Amino acid sequence: MGSQLTQKRSPAGGNPARGTGSAKRVRADTDASVFLDVVRQAGCTDYAATELLRLQRLILAQFRWLDSLASGGTLTGRLLELLDACTSDLQRDVIKFLPEIVTEEHHAEVLDKLRKTCETDVALLLPALEALSMLCLDDELQDAAVGMAIDRLDSVSVADLPAVLHFVLVHADCKLRQVVPLVREKLLFLAPADPRLPGAQADVQGAPADAPADDELHTFLALRNSLRLSPAACSSFMAELKSLTGDDERRVTDVWVPLILHSFGGSHGKAAGTLFKKQVTDGSRALLSRAIVGHQAVLHELGGMDASSQKEVLRALHAHLGSQAAPQVSAALAALLRLSVSRPLALLRHATFLMAILDHMDAYSPEQLHMVFELFSELVVCASAEGGDTTRSQLRIGQELQAFLQKQMSSSDARAQRVGVIGTARLVRRLWRGPPACAAQAKEHVRRVFEGAAASPGGFAVFCDDLADFLDEDQSVPSEVVAWLSEAANDCLDGFMADVDHGVCADNAAEIMVPGGFHIQGELWLSLHQEAPVAYSILPRLAMTHAADRDALLYVGALLRLMREALLRRSGTLGELEATLVCPLLLPPADMTTRCGLTALPPTRRELVALALWHAVTWLREALNTFSGDPPTATLGAVEVRQLVVLRLQQLCQFEALLEVALEHAPPSFAKAKTVKAKHQPWEKGSRVGEVRRGMRPLQAPAFLLVACLNEVEQPAARAAPAAYLLAELQGQMDTLDTSSTRPMPPGTMKPQCEAELLRTLPAILPALRLHLDSALQLQQALDADGGEEEDSVAPAHLRDAALPEGPLLIAHETEALAPRAALGRLISSALGCVRRLAGSRAVKTDAALRNALLAAFAPEGAGVAAAAQPEVEGVEQALAACSGACTYFEGLACQRGYSAGFDCVYVAVTAMHALVVLAEATAAHAANADACEAVLQVIKGKLSSAARAMLAEDWDPAPRKGAPKGALKAAAPRHGWHGRAPAMAALVRFYLGYHCEPVAELLRLASAIAHADATNACAAFSEATVATWYRALVDQLITQWEALRAAMARAASAGAEQDRGKLTRDAARCSEAFSRLARFTRQHEHNQLVLGQAVRLGIRFAEALLRMESFWKERLAACPSAATAFKAVCEHTSKGTRACQAVCQVAKARKDLAITGKVPRAKRAFEALLSMAGNVCGDAALWIGVLKNKDLAGQEMLSQAQEPVPCDNEDVQGL
């Protein structure tokens, strides 16, 4: 059989021994062409895409035997022709077949074709390089292939980058000295999702979106393997890195390559280690930060190096930790934290070195402190779990960390205590999630913290809050741990309770000695149950000798929260906390809390009364946080709990009123001691209680659901003050939406309300907020109709279907705090403020459900519709219609008022309309029918403009004087209501003009009115005292409209209807006339520096924008010669305006007004350039330029250069 085969084929050419070889070859070439045509024609069939690709690949696979029949050149040419005609998926298969068919004489043709193909589709670069690597290319073609790969190194897919990089470094050979600089320039160690990635690299084809770190790691591994295989590449890289002189020449690659070479050892390893140390000590921090931030996967791989290399990496990270640059510190901690999870044993080998991280505690932010202690917690758990596999030094890390935390907790410094609390909380969390053997260690840490609570009350409060968050977030906490925490919190809470027997407290039987040697007889306040077993012992605690015992009241709220979470996890009810809801408060006697009683007390006892009331307020707020949201209890029903919580809310309003009175008589240092620096809140105006409220724990999201519960109160007058209190608190927390604060929270205060949780609660609150707002407006109208008279007493709020408990439920001498007259203004202002803040937040623009809830709640149909099931708002058109309806509602509040509303309430309503207009604009941006949406949007804007104009036309009551008593006003005088309200006036002018249907025409009208003093009769907001504010507002609006007109002209220069261009020319003429009038307005106010400065600013901006309109005017005059009239009008008005601005500049130079003279050179350059621009547009023949004299604002001629008098020499004079 073997002999038969040898006879069929000749040894040289592989042709059959019988017959004519040329005939066989022609037949083979014909067969090859037929096969290729079949592949090409298969693409024209009706097969599905996957079936078609499978068919084409099956046909193409038959080419494997054609090389024995057909000539290589013919078949290669046909395959290259097929490469242009097939799809990208089939192109990969064609490229893979090329090495099996192509002959040596066609290598250049194949390389040239593959280079052109990769220029069209860079995704084919990898199969092309794989095919070229299988060919025996000569040196010239090899260099060309390497160059093709380098040219596309910065545009290739990140998934293909490792193989491309490996090809470049392995096949460069003797050209490595030229190749290495190009690789450094084009190789970016960046993942596709990294925000630092340039825009050209953001959408790389073929990059898997779910694993950017893996692609980067593969690139790093390819670089390391290529360097390991090519010693010449290592030498070239070292030579290139040593030749770099400045930090601006270095790349991220230059940081990682020395580490790779150092891991290889040998001569290159030693030199690379020295180079890396120099980079760490002398290099740029920004470069080292870029090498670490976002590259944790590479650091993870470096953990597999030898001990020496690992220590070098840790030293580099430690250098970043001490840099005091927040991004570098966070990046280094993130890298260490990832290594602690993936390679804990490798880090434990350097435990002694890692303990040096604790030396930088003062420079860490709260977030970085959490990362630090998460790192050490992971290592402690790993060392405990490994047991015998760890050394004694590795086990010591837990002992050293425990000693460090104890030292921090026992420190007298508040920041050190916070560090100890955060570290202990992180460690306890990780121990309880670790092996069962770690639970005992966690209990020991918690027990130690509870025992030292008196030494650090603020730190203990933070610790309890962290444990409560842990129980709320992690549902896998063992039940025995939850039970143990519940018992520990309950035992600690019992120390603040006093036993009560038949309404008599044992601690109240005798007088209590308070600091200073005084005795006070305590009194039980406001028990909600006749048989309450305990009382909250505030006064006895404050009477204790040691300050630590008195300050222990600071962490009672945190204890309540911890116990609440533990009870709900353990039994699902709050049965053990029912007594805290109904228990009375042991406080000083009621007669000491009145104004007369406080006046008769010495200063020390006044401070004691104020402090007792402050702790009473914090207790009642924690009661709202604990029992809001209808938590299950053992004996009380949901309705009974709601009734008791509403009563506590009423009492809270009364206690805050008492606290405000006590603060007026307390020493000034008391408010400063109870407050922390925080953002100004709306409730702080005119009262000191707002200052100390910032030091209290905030209300949680379930507490705000009481806004809806208050609608069930039968007496409308009884729910005004509680609703105002909740809405003011809600407005304060909504001010933190879309903002992030880096300020650390002080000890003893809870972190601000989570934004996500607050946003989830708002859809349930908004309908109730609308009902409260409508009810407040109706009640205000009723009080106005009755002449302002109201009842002196307010009954306890009684919910429907609920029974009131027996006994005195409210403070008898502080019922005015619950009176509706004082609360209605706060309720209306706070409700409108909440709507304004929510409508202007980023969340309502991205969350369609929240947006729909807001718009449905304020539909114009009425409160009944808002309280019912909210209709679905589908589509952009319906959303805009809902926005228009909500604006109609607020327009009625601002314009057609049937109630006695002050300036603040109406202004908040107008600003809420502005927030809705911005929301409507954001919604209309996604509309398919732009014309219809634009019509609705113009209607919405018109409502805002009308409301702002109506507010400007009214003369309001004067604003209260700064430092004046609450309710004190200035003497009423015409047009004095706008004094002190300049920012609001400027905003209203902006709303009025910016959203007017014809802003340019209205701006011209107003400019003419103020120039002739006609605005004084038409608008109450305009007067001599407010002229500077008005002038600046008009200048800002004119600049805005002029810049918008310039942008519209730029767009119309390329495309635009003829009527649009005509409107633009008319608006340009109006704007120039308004500019002329505003500029010449300075003649009437030549001594008003604010007006003069704004005029020069307007002239510069107006002239510079007009210069950029030159191309539009040239095209306009060429297409429509009649437009020359409009352009000449623009030039005429502009000339008058710039002439007035030049006069202002001359006056400023004479007066040596530095605020204006600094702008004079820029103004003169812009004004002189206008002459050249006018000549270019309308021709020199049509332009007349005259020489004018320098005149001041009064029209008097003045010298262009100020001349100083020359002093005379007395001797010369005498000689003459």
Helicity level? 55-70%
Mean pLDDT: 75
Structural class: mainly alpha
Strand content: under 5%
GO cellular component, one term: condensed chromosome
Family: Belongs to the Fanconi anemia protein FANCD2 family.
Protein name: Fanconi anemia group D2 protein
InterPro entries: FANCD2
Describe the structure.
The chain has 1216 residues and is mostly helical. It is 63% helix and 2% strand. Strands 2-1-6-7-5 form a 5-stranded mixed β-sheet. A two-stranded antiparallel sheet has the order 3-4. Helix 7 packs parallel to helix 9 and helix 50 packs parallel to helix 52. The longest helix is centred in the middle third of the chain and has 31 residues. It starts with a helix and ends with a helix. The N terminus and C terminus are likely disordered.
SSE layout and pairings?
Layout: H1 2-8, H2 21-42, H3 49-60, H4 72-85, H5 88-101, H6 107-120, H7 125-133, H8 139-151, H9 161-171, H10 176-186, H11 212-229, H12 231-242, H13 253-264, H14 266-282, H15 285-292, H16 296-302, H17 307-321, H18 326-342, H19 344-348, H20 351-354, H21 366-386, H22 392-409, H23 414-433, H24 439-451, H25 457-473, H26 479-494, E1 497-501, E2 504-505, E3 512-514, E4 518-520, E5 523-525, E6 534-537, H27 539-542, H28 547-551, H29 556-570, H30 578-582, E7 585-587, H31 595-600, H32 603-627, H33 638-665, H34 668-673, H35 689-693, H36 701-704, H37 706-709, H38 720-734, H39 755-785, H40 820-839, H41 842-846, H42 848-857, H43 863-867, H44 875-894, H45 903-924, H46 930-952, H47 982-994, H48 999-1011, H49 1015-1018, H50 1027-1054, H51 1058-1080, H52 1089-1107, H53 1110-1119, H54 1124-1151, H55 1154-1157, H56 1160-1178, H57 1210-1215
Parallel strand pairs: 6-7
Antiparallel strand pairs: 1-2, 1-6, 3-4, 5-7
Helix pairs in contact: 2-3, 2-4, 3-5, 4-5, 5-7, 6-8, 7-9, 8-9, 9-11, 10-12, 11-12, 11-13, 11-16, 12-13, 12-14, 13-14, 15-18, 16-18, 17-18, 18-21, 21-22, 21-23, 22-23, 23-24, 23-25, 25-29, 26-29, 29-32, 32-33, 38-39, 38-40, 39-40, 39-42, 40-45, 44-45, 44-46, 45-46, 46-47, 47-50, 48-50, ...
Region (Disordered): 1-25
Subcellular location: Nucleus
Protein name: Fanconi anemia group D2 protein
